[in-house]
């Protein structure tokens, strides 16, 4: 429906796994990943791993092939298509990266359902290696979100604030937001939703646990979803 903006997290929300872990495991880099994990921020680590895999002869096509077989719940696909066909404005807000997300959405024919992908930028360099950069340049301009659940490269609450400002500026009308996510990084934006908005946390996942610790902190109505019973494709269109 026009006037409703639906914001989707990507990892463990649109797809059923974490795309970074899926690619790392699928290309046999799990051991290296575990070794490097304590030494650098997550976002920097994935960029570094892409360099290591490239040096080992893995191509961008290998990365894409692994992403195309990442599991995706048909109920989630149905929910996305239904919300889009009802006229909602769908956006991705993810701490993965543009290449991973576009590869998956293209493969499932879903990219056209989304008006915007907010994530860590990526590009392919002259050698054919995938480079991944942080969404916020945290060395030059830290995002200064004091919540503690936002990684240094992305405060989703601040990005959500920017999205709301930009969609409101388009026609001046206030929009209802619906936010779907699973991770601790989805907690900050849930606190920024307004009374007329809906927060849809994935039940049993970190953002659900954080919300349950102190439900009074959220202004938005909370409607959990789970993958097991196809709740999402019935609930989401109902709210729009
Ligand atoms: Mg997630
Ligand atoms: Zn934040």
From TrEMBL:
Its cofactor is Mg(2+). The keyword Magnesium applies. This is Phosphatase. InterPro entries: HAD-like_sf, HAD_hydro_PyrdxlP_Pase-like, HAD_sf, Pase_PHOSPHO-typ. Coiled coil: none annotated. Gene3D superfamilies: HAD superfamily/HAD-like (3.40.50.1000). GO terms for molecular function: metal ion binding; phosphatase activity. Pfam families: Put_Phosphatase (PF06888). Keywords: Hydrolase, Magnesium, Metal-binding. Mg(2+) binds at residues 9, 11, 182. The active site is at 9 (nucleophile), 11 (proton donor).
